[in-house]
Amino acid sequence: MVDDSKQLEPYEFVRLVLATQRRLYGLVRTLLPNCSDVDDIVQDVVTLMWQKISEFEPGTNFSAWACRIAHLKVLEFRRRENQGHIFDLDLINSLAQDMSTAAAELEARSTALEECVEALPVSERELVLMRFREASSVKATALHIGRSEVTVRTMLRSVFTKLEACIQARLGGAL
Amino acid sequence: MTVGEFSNKRLDYLIDVVSHEHFTEAEADELTALLSNHPAARQVYIRRMNLLGDLTALSRRSMGGPELVSPQLVVRGKPTAPSTDIRRQRWLPYALAAILIAVSTAYMGTLLTQNRDPAIVDSGLPGTSSQLAEKATQLDSGVATLKSCSGWWSGAGMSAEIGETISVGQWLHLEKGQAELQFRNGVLLTIGGGSEVEIESSETVRLYRGTVSAVVPENAIGFTVATALADIVDLGTEFSVSVQDKQLVDVEVHSGLARVEGNGRANETRLVEAGEAIRVDPMAQDYFSSTPRAALKHSTAKENGSLFIAYQTRQGTVGTQSYQGKLGHDFDVTRAIEITRLGVFDSGSDGLNREITCELWRRDTAGGADRAERLVRLTFAEGDPGELIESNRFLPLDVPLRLEPGAYSIVAAGYGIREPNGNDHDGGWQRHLKARTDGDGLISFVGSSRFELDEQAQPDGSYGWESNADAFPGFLDQRFVDRYSAGTFEFRAAGRSVEPNK
Question: Would you tell me which residues 426-455 of chain B have a C-beta closer than 8 angstroms to some C-beta of chain A?
Answer without folding.
Answer: 427-429, 431-432
